Amino acid sequence: MTRGNEYMIFGRVKPLDAILATAEKRGLHRSLGAFQLTMLGIGAVIGTGIFVLTSEAAQKAGPGMMLSFVVAGFVCAVAALCYSELASMVPVAGSAYTYTYAVMGELLAWMVGWALILEYAVGASAVAVGWSGYVVGQFQNQLGITLPAALVNGPYAGGIINLPAVLISLLVTWLLVIGTTESARVNAILVCIKVAALTLFIALALPVAQKEHFEPFMPTGFTGVMGAAASIFFAYVGFDAVSTAAEETKNPQRNVPIGLIGSLAVCTVFYLLVSAGAIGSPLGAQPVADAAGRVLDPGTTELAARCKAVVAAGALEPLSCSREALAHVLRTIGWVKIGNLIGLAATLALPSVVLMMMFGQTRVFFTMARDGLLPERLAAVHPRYRTPHVVTIVTGIAATLAAAFLPVGKLADYSNSGTLFAFMMVGISVLVLRRVDPTRHRPFRTPLVNIVAPLAVLGCIYLYVSLPWAAILVLPIWGSIGLLIYFGYSRKRSHVGRGIIDVVDDPNLQPEVARPLDR
């Protein structure tokens, strides 16, 4: 690379030699077909968002949240097709940061990695808060113990601290430090639990759904539907498990799009049926409004106070107010014990998602530190547990603080802002590389790329601007901090910039080939 190119936006491309040298130590057999890929995607995607964000979507869009699931699923599908091409060009299993560094250069890789840190760490906090709601419900409905409201709610709901969310975040941090990872067998069991719980919910709630509860269908208009779509985009995150499996796929040009579209379609149908069952219940899904008829924003003290007033007046707790929405619906239609089982399923399954997200964040952080872009002390490996303990503890503290004080909806929105930016960059990268490097080998090529990639970019941008203002502002503020760090610290210490090429022999410490937890 010439010195002039070094300062271009696409300069400092990380050589593939170091990545591939380690990948060769652990070559992956091409054994996955379309069906296996579809099942892989369903397992990685389904469950989390519908468990923890149904109330949020109901408050933003009312029954129109069914359209929100379709919109979010479509944007995910076109982004996933672009992601697959980028993933296949760098034939290792890894993250968007790794791919971008290898094909687009250091600055854009830094921006993607910095956004992924936001996505994973804040996403873990969101799931921890969602888990807290189900745990509190289990104590109350299974054991008859009402936990102090001040200790199970953040300030947004009139409490002091969300202690269950703090405890699960700290527990997951400790498990990651000592080297606990989720086995394929445990993951399969948890996927079965999630799918069985949602199937049972659909079987019980849908037959008794009342069509009058679907009117008005869009009480907050098209803006509300898109705002809910931007939030419940969180429900689809995880599809990249399929994209990054291209290396292990037989006939990837045929099977990868089938796996992607198939898994997203199945998940979308599940989400539509679950939301229909919730909307048609006696609770309905109309947003909660104040005395003047103004729809209140989710995750605010005003909404929390209004919810308490509604319940105090003797009415059923609205769907938008519930912290364990699916369990609450089943209890309301007479299936109290089954509702408690749904809550138990969420209680068992969601900690593994916290573990997966925090694992992903620490590995991205660790890779960036090992590349010299962050202080190398963060890449220190524990002498006994052989885990990146420093970055894991830093991540755990940050995730715990966010979970302690912020509501689940706001955390999901903040996480989505990072995710949408990363996926937008992937769409742009595919278009740019088709133009500047058309001869590069691509095991998978995005079909109709001149239509699909722009749709992915525009879809991500539209969902991003549909987020609440606070979430919209998080990304440029976070990104500005990242650019200051990059130009003030990372650029001159970058290993690629200094001509240092590392090859890590231990595949467990090489995130580019470490197996993701959701496989």
Automatic annotation (TrEMBL):
Annotated Gene Ontology cellular component terms: membrane
Which domain of life, per UniProt?
Bacteria
Residue ranges annotated as transmembrane are: 34-53, 65-86, 107-136, 156-177, 189-209, 221-246, 258-279, 341-366, 387-406, 418-436, 448-465, 471-489
> Which key words tag this protein in UniProt?
Membrane, Transmembrane, Transmembrane helix, Transport
Per the record, membrane topology reads: Multi-pass membrane protein
InterPro entries linked: AA/rel_permease1
Q: Which organism is it from?
A: Sphingomonas aerophila
GO molecular function annotation: amino acid transmembrane transporter activity
Designated name of the protein: APA family basic amino acid/polyamine antiporter
Q: Pfam families, alphabetically?
A: AA_permease_2
Indicate where this protein resides in the cell: Membrane
